Amino acid sequence: MRRLQHLRPAMGAVKKPIRLGCGDGTGVGGTAGKGHKGQKARAKIARGFEGGQLPLQRRLSHRGFSNERFATVFQVVNVGMLDRFEQDTVITPDVLKDAGLISSRLRPVKILGHGSLATRITVCAHAFSRTAVEAVKAVGGAVEVLD
């Protein structure tokens, strides 16, 4: 009966490693397969070393990290544009989209303080500038920040 301790690899499946530098009769004695003299015969060479020539990774142009892909891009609406709405209107991103002031309901909206406001309105947006909040509250309106 065969047992685990009697199992052996098939003939020719396992080769003995070449023992470098073990005499001239082995074929790899003396210089141990490294040839004669020179940098490669003496020490390890760093990967990518090109003999003193500027290495490839330094020749190519470098690009740094940019946080632009992860930045929040707001759709901007100025306070002066909100003057077209009637008194006591609640202005949401849906209302702004229907009025043609923003292009998408999905992207966040920021209200900036450029222009003047004459009507009292409630503005709901994702972000406000300080001057926009002051302009809306100056006419008795309200500001609500969306998540």
Question: Mind explaining what this structure looks like?
Answer:
This protein has 147 residues and is of the alpha/beta class. It has a domain at 69-145: Ribosomal Protein L15, Chain: K, domain 2. 16% of the residues lie in helices and 14% in strands. It has helices at 39-42, 56-59, 93-98, 130-138; strands at 75-78, 90-91, 109-112, 122-125, 127-128, 142-145. The strands form 2 sheets. Strands 1-3-5 form a 3-stranded parallel sheet. The chain is elongated and about 105 Å long. The two termini are 74 Å apart.
Keywords:
147 residues, 3-stranded parallel β-sheet, 6 strands, elongated
- Strand proportion, as a percent range, falls in 5-15%
What order do the SSEs take from the amino end to the carboxyl end, as H and E?
HHEEHEEEHE
| Count of beta strands | 6
Question: What is the C-alpha radius of gyration, as a whole number of Å?
Answer: 38 Å
Shape: elongated
Query: What is the C-level CATH assignment of the domain at 69-145?
Result: Alpha Beta
| Amino- and carboxy-terminal Cα gap | 74 Å
Mean pLDDT reading:
93
By CATH, the topology of the domain at 69-145 is Ribosomal Protein L15, Chain: K, domain 2
- Unreliable runs, pLDDT <50, ≥5 residues? none
Major sheet details: 3 strands, parallel
Q: Which strand order spans the largest sheet, edge to edge or round the barrel? A: 1-3-5
- The residue fraction in helices comes out at 10-25%
Q: Structural class, from secondary structure content?
A: alpha/beta
